[in-house]
Amino acid sequence: MEDNKFDTPELREYPIIPKLRKGVMSHSKPFIAKESHQEPLGFPGELVEDWHDVAINKMADLQSKYRSLQVYLDSCVKCGACTDKCHYYVGTTDPKNMPVARQDLYRKVYRRYFTFAGKYFPKLVGARDLTKEVLDDWYTYFHQCSQCRRCSVYCPYGIDTAEISMAAREVMDTIGVGQKYCNEIISKVHKIGNNLGLPGPALKDTLEGLEEDVEEETGVAVKYPLDVKGADVLLITPSADFFAEPHVDGLIGYGKVFHEAGISWTISSHASEAANFGMFIGSYENMRKLAVRIREAALELGVKRIVFGECGHAWRVAYSFLNTLAGPWDFLDQNYPIPQHICEVTYDLIQNNKLKFDKSLNDDMVLTYHDSCNVARASRMGDKAGGQFLIPREIIKATCNNFYDMSADTIKEGTFCCGGGGGLLTDDLMELRVKGALPRMEAMRTVVEDHGVTHMAAICAICKSQFAKVFPYYNFTMDQIVSVHQLVSNAIILTGQHDENDDKTHSQEDIDEAA
Amino acid sequence: MQISMLSFSIAALFYIAFFILVYGLVSKILQYKNTPAPLKIPTMPAPTTKAGVIFRMSKEVVFFESLFKSSKVTWLFGWLFHFGLFIDMLRHLRYFIDPVWFWVVIIQPFGKYGSILMFVGLIGLLTRRIVVDRVRYISSPSDHLMLILLLCITTTGMAMSFYLGTDVISVKSFFIGLMTFNIENIPADPILISHLIMVASLMIIFPYSKLLHAPGLFFSPARNQIDNSREKRHVAKWAEELERN
Description:
The complex is a heterodimer of chains A (515) and B (245). With 515 residues, chain A is mainly alpha-helical. Chain A has 23 helices and seven strands.
């Protein structure tokens, strides 16, 4: 692969819409899944002999199962509204990275086999046979879509390229052309319970290590429990939280919040993964199987609530799909949203004055906040539309003195993907990831210059890993990305904690006064 | 009265076109309606109530809200065209009802200007399709032809209404006659006949082309779903079957 030889795009002064450069990303393909990655998911190990017919049948099957797909394939008028909205288009200028052009790779095959016009007048409507060449284009460009839904916001019909790219990936999996990164990871979750293949004992070690660190630092015995039956809360968090930076600092923060609020909680070794890559490959069945592990863990541990840690697509699956995939959740405490986001938990506690913060402990940072696409455009927090924008910002403002938003067209529902979502967070797609980060990096640079921003906070494991990796390409440093609950962790004053400044411990009265 | 061959042909064309339009649209709408939406995928932030969804959808249908967010130029031309088309279609109701409803009479003078909006909108959209490299890249011949067809319908209509005129009384009795299966003569006015043939073609093309965006919008899960997935379990039939295994 030529991954090592590419130029990082220049940050532009004015983000004008770039001119098309045909084929500049046609070489970008992720590694193909091997038989051992495919079969645990129920997919053939290599390209099946009658792949053409199998693919067309699968397309028909998906059209009959997903209204979104059927309606979106028919409804596009090629108005071009989405053409400049994709971060991969902006960063690469390859025309096939325009959302409509990406969809058309699928749509032209749909038209050829399933519509009157495409069957009899293919040239007129741009319909094409499904050939090896077209399949190759599918593999290339449906793995340059992070399913971030930004195009869907701007489409007059809400056409969501994510739906098309999920369908295309499922068709490809069905004929034996899977993507290694996603499918290898899914097979690990099926087998072991998390993306990393981290077994129970290793997880236990890690969590005990965290307990020691936190106690050493604060003097308070904050617990990071594993497989505790009868705990109130089952925490489902991305496995990156167990070891990666800055993710783990977020996990430390969740533990401190639970500790301080007196909520008993546990992690499960059976469902030690919030991520659900089944969504990325468009496989309802795989997504469901992964989600059902959470149900099994909740039943086995007898918990009353389920709380999700900081993970963007996991929160989409949790918020929007978990009830569908693994519900009904009638055995949980109905007084709490099911499932709940850790930010909702923390926000509620802040609202009720249950947590005490010393904001100055975050004074070494000037923060901005990156809305993760799946949280922003595919889920919600709290009880009002838009809570997913408000709640994380309120947490940051409660824990930090210095916060500035990036420019309005790059945040909230218009947020730009980090460049690594949708199953693309793999080293074999490094060029794509770096280029796809361009619009976010430009917005970041502006707040750095205008407000002296030093750090970007996020609530998504993929965003955090992606930024840690691509920041250096744009002359930022990898530690400039932080977890929101890392800010909470830094600023929270635990009952009985050593005070870093004057060495006195905070008494219960202090806490009560603050309340 | 002797019915001309021309009148027979146009009448037949309109019966066929009407049948295809209705049959095609009804089957598409039934297909959309009967295809399950297994997952909750509204583009967030989304309304949390049904009334909210109706409000969101109305803003899309009437004002093209999302398009306004994405491209002001496309929005302007697109909205001008559709609004002009809407007024002109209402204005054309007078050829199909007798006596003509009060409000249809009222809008007759404004209706004339609807065609100007359509014309400006279509020229703008066509220019954009040719000039902007991104839009040119995604255009098929059918995308250009569709705009040209609409432009020809608009200009022939304008020619009749602003300059040449046509025998509107006969046109009206022709269409009223069609509706009561009583074919009458249509004036052999070449502009009128080409206007009508193109309108019939548009009706035939409608259910088999991207014009399906009209019903499609109402079935778009990204826009018509309520954000209530935590409160209400949403499961498609085919997905229920997975649960039994």
